[in-house]
Amino acid sequence: MASKSVTFDNIKKIFRDPQSGQDVAAVGGVSFRLEPGELVTLLGPSGCGKSTILRMLSGFEQPTSGKIMIGDNDVTNTPPNKRDTAMVFQSYGLFPHMNVAENVGYGLKLRKVAQKDIDEKVQKFLEMVGLGQMGKRPPSRLSGGQQQRVALARSLIVEPSVLLLDEPLSNLDALLREQMRVEIRRLQKSLGITAMYVTHDRVEAMSLSDRIIVMKLGHIIQIGTPSDIYRNPVDTFVAGFVGKVAFFPCVVKGIDDSCHVEIKGQSFNAPRWSDKLKAGDKALVMARPESLSVGEPGAGVEDGIVTANIYLGNSVETWVKTDLGNVLVQIDNPDVKKIWNEGEKVSLSFDPSLTKVLVDDLEQA
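Above: the chain's sequence. Below: its structure in token form.
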């Protein structure tokens, strides 16, 4: 498959609200690039514009302004069937009157490929998705995960330059979602195909993506690798959207090769901080569950009461009720560490090397 880059150049999409009659910006001037063979996920809450971007790339929606490129070709006004893209839908979209093999080969039939070649290619792609013996079955006799594999094979068999996936796993149960995440990642990388994936599920985004585009209200808030997004979010919205987090109010005392902060008379040095901060600012220390620990009352930066312990085998999730809200602490290797009982008074501490200091924008969020 010939993978190609994708470029969005200042793309806007304006809709007219039928009730108010006002123009609403679903996408407000976004620019980004997918490299050939890269899987990029659009992540954000419902209504943030991610599906609209996917539909504009597929050709099902036209941008109000801006330019969309696939490779060196401007496809902004190109109809969907001329774009060399393929879509995997949330609802599978299989034809119930066709068997599995006929569904997978449908795109090739439309392209008037010889039946012998279709049969050979269909078998190849069914084996690729682990359904090599199920070509004659009707879709109604397949599980949800198997139906999604058929939909994936149907999209891949036409060898598109860009594969589009619109929340394809949202109808599956937790175990199947996990299995299909692995399968999609394996196939995408083995074929070297450029892919854009849309989801509001942070676990999907973190486990599948080369890079993640986090969106809010039609705008891109941050673009980065899963590690960048998780460890180095640009603001409290991104920090909270991509994972569990606790925010501890602090005062910035100074910034040099680290950010020096003070919390309730205790001083800490953080390795990461927002470039908008300066000495004297009130700010927030962002701490993930794995960076937190539980100790004797008064020993840490915030006291509270243990409200729940959730045993997960290799870890325990301890929830602590504090004046700052309910805080999740991840305790790894629980067999060799103290687990505080529910109802006990405790104090929270954090590993400063795993934190970031952010602008306190929670009231605006």
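The helical segments are 50-58, 100-110, 115-128, 144-156, 174-191, 202-208, 226-231, 236-241.
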